[in-house]
Amino acid sequence: MKCLRPNYLRDFQCDGQQCSSRCCRNWRVVIDGDTHKKFLALDDHNIIDHIVDDQNGLTVKLKPNGDCPFLDCDLLCSIQKSYGEDHLAAICQAYPRVTYQLNDMLEQSLTLTCPVAARLILLSTEPINFETVEIDRPRFTFDWSNRVNDIDEPVELQLNCIRLLQDRSLDIDKRLLNLCRLFNEPAVEPKPFDVDKHVDIMINIFEQTYSIEMSNAKRLGLKKIYIELRAEIIEQLRRGSVLENYLVNEFFMRCYPFALDHDLWRSCRIFIVGFKAMEFALVLNVISKGGRISVDELLSMIDAINERLDHHRGGMTAVNQSAQNLDGFDEFAAAMLDTN
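Above: the chain sequence. Below: its structure as tokens.
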């Protein structure tokens, strides 16, 4: 099938030595039905005895230290070494690739949860470019064709959005404003940025993401220091192309603006609120480190915050609710985007 993908996929190679095989540790590994049949046919009890039914399906029973039992001393998969890639579970064979099907087109990218992929993607100084290639349809594919069946040229719409996100003549908030305008025609000039409302929303998301409840005094203190230092730190964070690459990869990898069935404007809002929650947490982290961070520290922060938002339901619930509450273009732009 035809597949649209970022050019960086040409250069990606899985290397457990670079990341200590992170994807083989402390993750729930689902065993799909086809793979389980292959395991049973092998009659290899070293494999079969480590497959359990956890009531949500078949999974690999991890070691007490969280390692996959099939991870060998060379940080390689013993199943792949013994039986070949075709005997890997569908998710293991795919990761860190994420593939969607939109009608007769596949889209494939890499998730930033892989440290090797994250460095490849985020540290590139060149804009992320895309190419169309022919590939076999991966076993692990999200078929979202039903989400775009009433949209003319959905792939071109995505690429138009990405072009807006890569417009380096504008700062990031103005690029995001143009993204909002794409789904709100005609859109007038936004109201002035309401920093107080913005911080209140972000603190609420922060509390739910990290399962904490701050006192009013602590909230006010955090709000005060954030407002005082945010402009300087955001300027530091936005130097270079790390945050642009983050935005573009997240947009494409999560298949925006089709994250919600047939509600492109709400999908756009969720995407932006999620990014703003990331940016807010980054600013707080930089403040905690005295106002300056290295590139490696920035990558580590992005990884940790992304993992928290992805795997703790409270954070994404708060992001979705905030996006829902800010329905109108003017209200949303004023609360989220500092374009003054």
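The beta strands are 2-6, 51-53, 58-60, 97-102, 105-110, 130-134, 142-143.
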